Amino acid sequence: MKGNVLVGQSGGPTAVINSSLAGVYKTAMERGFNKVYGMRYGIQGFMDEQYVDLSHHIKSELDLELLKRTPSAFLGTCRYKLPEIHEDKAVYERIFELLDKLDIEVFIYIGGNDSMDTIRKLFDYSLLTGAKQKFVGCPKTIDNDLAITDHTPGFGSAAKYIATSTKEIICDAMGFSYQKKNVNIVEIMGRNAGWLTGAAALSRSEDCEGPDLIYLPEVPFNIENFTTSVEKLLEKKDVVVAVVSEGVKTEEGKYVCEYATDSAPKDAFGHIQMTGTASYLASVIKNKLGCKTRAIELSTLQRAAAHLASKIDVDEAFNVGGATVKAADEGSSGVMVVIDRVSDDPYQSATGVYDVHRIANGEKVVPREWINKAGNYVTDEFLDYVRPLIQGQYSPVMVEGIPRHLSMNLKNYDWRRGSKK
Question: One of 143, 313, 315, 329 is an active-site residue; which one?
Fold first, then answer.
């Protein structure tokens, strides 16, 4: 008889992270595992013995479909950095004591770069101790910066939302253009990789010019050159829309957002909190050019918009979740499931596995040749890469006019009737 599966979610959520969770649960049950436990708040919560039997929350195919359409991390997430084994062996002893207690055969972690580092460390400890568990990483990040995999679940839906929102922002700005110069600066998530920011160019179509300027963190950002570019555009048109990554940096390596604040808080991995880039640049433009400006920060909206999720993204996230169980069941450990692009026209993809040591703590950035020479827009090659990933849409389950989600906090709710039991 097979043992149990333990699955957790870590890092920033996405619109499809729960689709991967649904894929893990469904495949584990189909392959004959006894139970699927979910870590509450990732590995950090698990060490405090916070976990749930998912069969108590996923009782039907409808629950699975709701889960696939539910944004944020259903299990709860964390940003906890495991120490190196030689730094604190007791942490690992605690984790593996709990794994044995729950008869865990497969450990799956859904996350990005830092989460794959957790898989790497747990796998390495299992080799040292001869532990029986298999450790498999399930990719997730809107940033699309995981190495090896063609792209990551979560990116396509975020890109779809960004392109749609950018188009709507441009429409809104044009409505106020009569005899009034105005500059809109849109800030997009992305610390060191500009995949999301570049996706704003997808808004360019027959009925929309798209943004005028796009700045990715892969190219050093010059504030003076940015101001000059905006000034030249305003000589020709009344409305300018610029899209900037939150992580753009000057040639000296200083994040532009750091000009907006004296100090920024850091997470457990030493990452500063990114915010204020658009606001700072809007104030610079207003002071130097004297025109109306608006700073627009999409913030968490770009990772929470499940109502606009890409069907390709939802389906791939679900399949990747299932592939993690399959990989472990067939003997793989210390790996991450990757997505391989098989074809662009028609678009097709397949899953594979890759050594997590080659992925953890790595970072995939936008190739320089996919950014124009001036460093203020993306190329057609970039758009050809992203466009297939935003196709299709899953309609939300609507109740009384708004989407219905699966929630641990609404156990007494009758999902089918839209009312309390």
Answer: 143
